Structures are given as C-alpha cells and as structure tokens.
Amino acid sequence: MDRERRRLRGRGGNNNHPRRVLADVVIRFDPTWLVTILLLSLLLLGKATGTTATVVVSGSMEPGIRRGDMLIVRERRNDGDGDDNIRAGDIVLFSTELHPVPIVHRVIELHERHDGGARQMLTKGDNNGVTDRSSLYTGQWLHDHHILGRAVGFLPYLGANILHSLSTLHRSKCAQFTNLEISNNLSIGSTVSLIKSAPKGGGRQQRRAKGMEKVAVGLLPPLRFIAVLAVVSWTSFIYCHFSLLSGGLLLGHGGGDDGADPCRGRYIYVHDLPRRFNDDILRDCRKTRDHWPDMCGFVSNAGLGRPLVDRADGVLTGEAGWYGTHQFALDAIFHNRMKQYECLTNQSAVADAVFVPFYAGFDFVRYHWGYDNATRDAASVDLTQWLMRRPEWRRMGGRDHFLVAGRTGWDFRRDTNINPNWGTNLLVMPGGRDMSVLVLESSLLNGSDYAVPYPTYFHPRSDADVFRWQDRVRGMQRRWLMAFVGAPRPDDPKNIRAQIIAQCNATSACSQLGCAFGSSQCHSPGNIMRLFQKATFCLQPPGDSYTRRSVFDSMVAGCIPVFFHNATAYLQYAWHLPREHAKYSVFISEHDVRAGNVSIEATLRAIPAATVERMREEVIRLIPSVIYADPRSKLETVRDAFDVAVEGIIDRIAMTRGGYARSWLRPKQSRQALDARRRRLS
C-alpha cells in the first residue's frame, strides 16, 4: 500500500495537479454546474450591472439561507450612487477595518443621526446568539462606508458545487492557478462573501484577520472563455435571474429598482404549530358549554358562526355575508384570513413578520373557571417553550413574532390584575412578553399589545358587497336622535350606564334595548342592527372594560358613536380609526355625566346638521376598516380590518428593528407617561 502511494506521488503521477483537478470537475459535471457557471460569468460584467454573486459557506444565516446557497448582491458604488437605501431587515455584505474579510449578515438596527452625521447600523446572523457588535466589530457600529452591497435574492444550493470543488482545490495547494479570491470564515461560524472579483497584479498574498485566512484558489477556465460563454448564455441567465427574484425570494426592504414586487416589505412567515395549539382547541369546543354556550356553532364557517337569515323588514341585506359571529371569535377568523394573505412566504429569512397561529382567546375559555393557575398557563408555557427553540425565534428574540388573542389584553396579564385568579399570564411570561399581540382591547400599559376591532356580524365576500352595503346605509332614514344597547352595572358605582339609561328614558328622542340578565334582545343581531340603523348617534359608555363590540356594530350601521372615555376608542384603535376624533365621533366626559352637569340630548342637538352629515359620511367611509371579510373569499381593492392590522404590525416590527413606522403608528412612550396614563385610567 505504501509502495503504491509512493508510486502515485512520483513524477507525472500527482493526482493534485491543477489540470487533473479541473479535469475531475469536468468529468463530474452535472446540470447545476451550467447555471453555476452562468452566474459566475456575471462577475465579468459586475462594473456594468452592479451585481455580483456570493456563496454561503456556514450556517449563521439559517434556516432561511443555508450553506451552499448563492446570494445575488447589488454592490454599493464608491461614489455613493449605488443601492444605498438600506433599512433594518436587509441582508448586507460588509467588511470593517478590524475585520476586512467580507461578511453577509442581516441589519437588525439602524439609527439616523439628527445632526446629519453618518447613520449607524447593527448586524447579526439569523442563527447566531449574539450580535456582530459582540464578535466582529466589538464596541463599534457599522457605517455606510463599511457596506459593500445588499442582497436582493438567492438561488438555493447552486453554490454547493463550488464548495465541493474548493475543498478539493484547497488540498491541491494550487493557489497560484486562480483568477478568483476566496474568503473562508468557518472558524467563527459566520456567513462570508465567498466569491469576489480578484485584484489585478502579480502574486497572491495571504491576509489574516482574527484567525481568518483568505486563500486564493482556482476554479474556472480563462476569463476570455467565460466571457464568450456569458454572451452565449445571456438569455438563459436573465430568465433564471429575474424569474427567481420575482418568485417570492426577495431579501429585505431596501429601495432601488425592486419596486415591481408588490409584496416587498409585506412578507409574512406562518409557524406550522402542532395542532394542540389551535385545531385541537376548536375540536374540544364542547368542553366550554357551561361558560360559552354553543361555542362549536360560533366557531363554524371559518370562525364566523352560523349564517343569519334576513328578516322580512330587510334589516340585513338579502345576500350572504351576515353571520352570528361571537365577539371573542377573532382567533379563528384572523388565522383563516391569514391563510389567504397574498404575501405569505415559506422562507422565514425573507419574512418581515412571523405569525404564530395560537388560539389564546379560546384557550382562555377552556380552563378559566374551576382550574388553578398552572393549568390556565399550561398551553401558553408550552407554546413559548416551543417557539424559543426555533431558529426563527433566535433571529430577533421573538420581537418579529405576533399572534392574535381575541379578548382584552387584561385577560392575558394575570399578575397585573386586581383579581389574582383572572386570566393567563401569556403577555407577562418569558417569550410571551417579547411578541406583539393583537387584542380587542389594549392594556395601554405596555407596547406589546395592540388593539384591533371586535368582529361584527358583517363579513363581505367581495368589494361589491361592501359598496352595496355602504350605499344602503347612506340612504337610511334615521328616526331616533340617539340609541343605546346595553345593560346597567349596578355593582359598579363608577359606571355611568345607569345615568345614560335614565337620560334615554327621559326623552322620546332616544331608544334602547333592554339587556338585563336573561333578556334575549341584546343577543339578537337583527334587533341590534335594526336599532342602530334607525339612530343618528349611538351611545357607547364603558361596560365590563373600556371597549365595546357595540362600537363597531353601530359604525357598520352608519351610526355616529358617542364616547364617554378616551380608552373606549381614542387610545385603542390607532391603526383603524382617524386621529381626528371629531371627524367621526362625539365625546362627552363621563365625569360630567356622573355629576349631572350635562344633557346628552342637548349636546347632540347642538351639532349643526351639515356637521352631522359629514360625520356620518366619515363613519360610512370607515366601514371597510372595521369589518373582517369572509376568510374564504378575497376583497380586491377594499382594505378590511385584517389588512389594516397586518400593515400596522409590520410597521411596528420595522420600528422595533430600528426602521421607521408610518406617522400614524402609536409612538413609544416613556415610563413616566405610562405611569401617568395608568393613574388616569384607574
């Protein structure tokens, strides 16, 4: 055996000779090499196109980007005219003075300086436990001059052949044979720029930085041959390049000339949760019959409930779209609506947000009465532990995750409640407090829960359904000046419902539905909508909590809401309702009502008729943004409450990353401001 090895090592028998290695590559040619060579040929045109290729050699960007994937990188030009519109969430190619070897990682924070100075960026590998500031450029920030380019797409596995050949060529010790410069950074597990244009000149020199070695190796035939191949294959390359980029593989949110992708900045990745977190909860709907009668009926039809049959008096339209929807059914409605979302992606690295389809609201009902706190929290603890083991969680520590909990935020903050046995601790436990949560009523004490509208009875299937209903509401005759639907709260001396009911009973201009315990009037969608359609103003005092489903039912009927507390709507639904509250509503202080200092009827009669018409028209205009379309169909041009909520949550996550939210997004507040708000609300 030793004799055979010595014979092969003799003159003319070196298996590691460069020509023999190249011949071995050709012999083992497979179809993926054709695309690989075509991509590499683009390097010759890099100066003209501003695009280059990068192969991933480690797992620091998994699971979205894996070892052997090829990234398409748009280079940043030294004159500043390149693709500089980098935003948080983009994947960039960079190098620093302390780390000259190019690295490909994601920007997780970006800070603009108000004094006009250079902006600061922080990067991190999606699969790394720490930021690059802790490992690659200790104590520093990245600036624009460190950025070499921005990733705009990737081609799975097409770099695998290159990596295989590199390992062979490294063993051949033929560095002097190459026209490419390869950087290897496996020692610290970072994703590096593997392919880069070689500098002109004579021999190669090894460069070392923090234990990293750049090795010049050869892989391709002479450059003139590649140039000819590139010209011949240009049409094929263009087809592959643009078809892949337009197929949902865009990375990041930067500007430039990629605006053709309608989903840019809107991609959502949905966790494939075990069934115990959603479907199994619905399957056990009969277990809640003592506390949520007929829950199984309410969660049928994708969460919408049973269809409503129109009455002879035409309270509802004679078309489909009306259901007996429960006010706490949003978990299932939102999840089913998300399944139809046009910008879903199965590449978590591409996603601008990650949706967690956990039915927290339904889980609340299962174990709230007659169980201990450990049982109430069991599913939430199970969920957070499952999530925190996922690589998608490690990218931002869960800050890009969101879920829907179709109840008030207080139902998931047991430790902050007066009643120590009420609700779960989902929003205060580790993992849960890191996510954004869409609730029906925000606690207003923490920036992680955001209020979205209660489900109404109306779930249109098309734009035409919405437009027809708006026209119908616009032409209704309003018989009553004001209306109220609700029960008194005799056990709560601070509640003003008793005063409102008394004022309503004292005038013929007001109508109300009696909702005392045992009454069925307030549980009939037809009765509720009939009253709201005949009233100009609908009174909306707080009930068990600040918010009410009745607010949105009345708006769907074209009735102008009258609020008595800021937390009923103004501090809650910043995404769905205008900041200019007087455009669509009336505010009367609950303190004046409680003290008997104000007449609700006189206040409403004092509003000019022209103003009332403008307010009603604004309410009618807002109808699409406060309803949830039927999840089994799709609206084309109308944005419903789901669309508005998704846009809002993506903006919120962008703000967390260091990006910039739209001007109407609720701003961050200081701890002193939150404490002051808590004192006011109490």
UniProtKB/TrEMBL annotation:
GO biological process terms on file: signal peptide processing
CDD domains according to UniProt: S26_SPase_I (cd06530)
Compartments in which it is found: Golgi apparatus membrane
Keywords: Glycosyltransferase, Golgi apparatus, Membrane, Signal-anchor, Transferase, Transmembrane, Transmembrane helix
Reaction(s) catalysed (UniProt annotation): Cleavage of hydrophobic, N-terminal signal or leader sequences from secreted and periplasmic proteins
Molecular function terms, GO-annotated: glycosyltransferase activity; serine-type endopeptidase activity; signal peptidase activity
Pfam families found in the cross-reference section: Exostosin_GT47
Key word Metal-binding present: no
Membrane topology: Single-pass type II membrane protein
Residue span(s) of domain Exostosin GT47: 263-603
InterPro entries linked: Exostosin, Exostosin_GT47, LexA/Signal_pep-like_sf, Peptidase_S26, Peptidase_S26B
Chief location bin: Golgi
GO cellular component: Golgi membrane
EC number: 3.4.21.89
Family label: Belongs to the glycosyltransferase 47 family. Belongs to the peptidase S26B family.
PANTHER family for this protein: EXOSTOSIN HEPARAN SULFATE GLYCOSYLTRANSFERASE -RELATED (PTHR11062), OS03G0144300 PROTEIN (PTHR11062:SF322)
NCBIfam families, alphabetized: sigpep_I_arch (TIGR02228)
Descriptive protein name: signal peptidase I
Organism: Oryza sativa subsp. japonica (Rice)
